[in-house]
Amino acid sequence: MAEKWKAKKYRLHGKNRYDIATEELDSTYEIAIPKTLDEQTAIAAVLSDMDAELAALEARRAKTRDLKQAMMQDLLTGKTRLVQGGFNG
User: Fold this and answer.
1) Per-block average pLDDT, block size 10, for the chain (89 residues)?
2) What's the chain's Rg over C-alpha atoms?
3) Looking at the whole model, is its pTM more than 0.85?
4) Are residues 9 and 18 in contact, defined by beta-carbon separation less than 8 angstroms?
């Protein structure tokens, strides 16, 4: 990998996009591809498990956000009041 990565940089709606020719990619980098079906299946299983874990975490985060929103709404409308422990004012 002594050669530098040859890419053309374009500005597109405020984001960078790199244009790489397939010939440049093939001659510059070696890409490891799993040779056996068992290895491919194992990789796919790990990726599927990671997707499921991410989905569960996103659902938990959404539930927590909704709970916080509901609690804030209760506090702001006066439906729920905070207890004043130890303050005599």
Assistant:
1) 43 55 67 88 96 97 97 91 67
2) 26
3) no
4) yes
Q: What is the pLDDT of residue 68?
A: 96
Tokens of 12: 């597109």
Pull the structure tokens for residue 22.
């397939």
Residue pair 25/3 in contact by the 8 Å Cβ criterion: no
Cα distances (angstroms) measured from residue 49 to each of 11, 45, 52, 82? 36, 6, 5, 42
Tokens of 56: 């569960």
Spans of all domains in the chain: 8-77
Largest CA distance in the chain: 77
